[in-house]
Predict the structure.
Amino acid sequence: MAATQLTASPVTVSARSLASLEGLRASSVKFSSFGTLKPGTLRQSQFRPFVVKAAAVVAPKYTSIKPLGDRVLVKIKEAEEKTIGGILLPSTAQTKPQGGEVVAVGEGRTIGKTKVDITVPTGAQIIYSKYAGTEIDFNDVKHLILKEDDIVGILETEDIKDLKPLNDRVFIKVAEAEEKTAGGLLLTETTKEKPSVGTVIAVGPGSLDEEGNLTPLPISTGSTVLYSKYAGNDFKGKDGSNYIALRVSDVMAVLS
């Protein structure tokens, strides 16, 4: 078997890039394979495939963060340590949170000649897109800076079914997967096709045109729709029902 040689390429960092990192310091990086790594403790022979997820750390001398433009600062909700049934989850099985509390907002943005303020108030509990924003550690608490457009909706209760979608998003209760084929054959859980049909239970206020004017969405609550199979963010309600939040552009048709 041929040996694999690992080499490191030189990295060039511009002065502008260094200036943008002022106030940040390196934090420990955690890998699922090794735990916490410290300088000098990793040997070449220990390398295996892994994913790095490190947050920038704001130095303690800074006491506040003010988002700019249409960005918001969110205090990330802690990962669930137990299932709904009370089963304790190991850290590797805990789902990455997609929610948190808005703790600061920017001044908004200008579209055309219209000043558009951020509509999400501080203190609101929100759900955001899975891979949105930049994660930071501030006062030993994980936060996320993201654009308002990356916020899926406002959560007014503990149950996801009460999500209030924002902007051009719609919130859909997913139809149950077919139990049988057209010929009457019973389908197993592994052979059931993921549904792409559901009922709209809430719609956002609309999208903004080039002049910053609000345009209502062309879909109303109660509509049964066909949507793109791999679009949006999936959620499971406390009642066991499946829900999905997606942009109206991912809705392909209204069924009747």
About this structure: The helical segments are 15-20. The first strand starts at residue 24 and ends at 25. The chain is about 0% helix and 35% strand. Residues 15-20 form the longest helix (6 residues).
